Amino acid sequence: MNTEKLFRIAITLKGLDGALQLVGGLVLMIVPASAVTGFAHAVVTRDLLGDPEGTLARHLELAAGHFVEGRTFAVVYLVAHGLIKLGLVWALARKVMRAYPVAAVVLSAFVVYEIFRAIHTHSLALPFFAALDVVIVVLVLREYRQLKRDRVAA
């Protein structure tokens, strides 16, 4: 598989990721906080997780409470992250030359943030996403160099 195809696949995946983040942020904006805490409470009181005083039940209610507290951040983060990714993917798909260095810098910043968050949250998924973003940065830079060579040769 050549670099161009790999690049196209990578930006398509990044576009889908951005779209999912945008939709997720919009859904979080619409769903009332009371619905989240009410759902958690209903699950716990109906013994769906076992003992209502048990560890799993406490974790669910605690997570719902943290969600309500951090909801504004989550909405802003998801919507902004999704829009930025979609904008970059749109520009890269149209081979807008100025977008390549911007994409490399923005995606690198995402990598730094993902690693920072992984260290503080002990997330197992974030290092995976950071590694994926590093691969995409490399592909973006390779594609940029190739486009520059092609334009000079033309």
From TrEMBL:
InterPro entries: DUF2127. Pfam families: DUF2127. The chain crosses the membrane at residues 20-44, 74-92, 99-116, 122-141. The keyword Membrane applies. Keywords: Membrane, Transmembrane, Transmembrane helix. The keyword Transmembrane helix applies. Signal peptide: none annotated. This is DUF2127 domain-containing protein.
